[in-house]
Amino acid sequence: MTAPRTSLLRAALADGRGPALGTWVKIPATEVVELVALAGFDFVVIDLEHSPIDLESAFRLIGTALHTGVSPVVRVPDLHPGLVQRVLDAGAEGLMVPHVDTVEQARAAADAVRFPPLGSRGVGATSRAGAWGALPLAEYLRYGQQEVVLIAQVESALGVANAGAIAAVEGVDALLVGAADLAVGEGKAQTDPDVVALIASAVAQGRAAGVPVGNAGAATAEAVRAALDAGFTFTMLSNDATLLGTAARAAVEAGRAVTSR
């Protein structure tokens, strides 16, 4: 009998030793995921909303993540059913849906991610998610229902107003507060007291509903401490392109600082 599998992301979110740490992947190269896994991140979010990554590249990035021990989450640009289905068949342990403003949108997301009777996801047990047909059907279905993590992004004042109800939708497992979009939507800076209050409200509502709430921030101890103090239970540390660029600039600055004797 095949032992039930546990999602690496769900396990990381349940670990109370500190916030689960992830980063965005925007570069369509499997080596990026290998490096992120070696660095010790808990999860990656393969970004199909704000990057040139296509479905085939996402498929390979997901496979690399699974084989290197970092949890693959995919942020889709929208709820196109064919895209969601194929990303989950590719073995994604989580799906992130942007701009979830209403309960109806949250239900639509859950419907796309879950199998009947919770949703309408089709059965594709001969895909990677089903170990190419080697996984018992019951375990394939259980994993899709109970282990795959659905993250709804709250990125507007309307989303904040509905955050508690969105978090309470069956099939929604976590919220991610999109502070940048929230601030732009309000026409204010992220540090503006009104925006800070909206973020705090979203966090409080999500936590009251019993779901983890995350954010995206800088790759610094100060940013992680601020996220933890604000009540977030998982956080995104920058992204692959910015991390590479920052390291490259630091290397050049170090080199330029050396002068001829």
Please, could you describe this protein's structure?
The chain is of the alpha/beta class and 261 residues long. The protein has one domain: TIM Barrel. The protein has 12 helices and 8 strands. It has helices at residues 8-14, 30-39, 55-68, 81-89, 103-113, 137-146, 157-161, 163-167, 179-186, 193-208, 221-229, 240-256, and strands spanning 20-25, 43-47, 71-75, 94-97, 149-154, 174-177, 213-217, 234-239. It has an 8-stranded parallel β-barrel with strand order 1-2-3-4-5-6-7-8, surrounded by 8 helices. Strand 1, helix 2 (30-39) and strand 2 (43-47) form a beta-alpha-beta unit. The longest helix has 17 residues, at 240-256. The termini are far apart.
Sheet/helix structural class:
alpha/beta
What proportion strand?
15-25%
Net shape: globular
Strand order of the largest sheet: 1-2-3-4-5-6-7-8
Assembly context of the chains: single chain
Biggest sheet descriptor: 8 strands, parallel, barrel
Low-confidence sequence ranges: none
CATH superfamily assignment?
Phosphoenolpyruvate-binding domains
In the CATH hierarchy, the architecture is Alpha-Beta Barrel
What count of domains describes the coordinates? 1
CATH topological fold name: TIM Barrel
Write down the Rg.
19 Å
Q: N-to-C terminal Cα separation, in Å?
A: 70 Å
CATH class: Alpha Beta
Helical proportion?
Answer: 40-55%
SSE order, one letter for each helix or strand: HEHEHEHEHHEHHEHHEHEH
Global mean pLDDT? 96
Instruction: Say how many strands there are.
Output: 8
Number of helices: 12
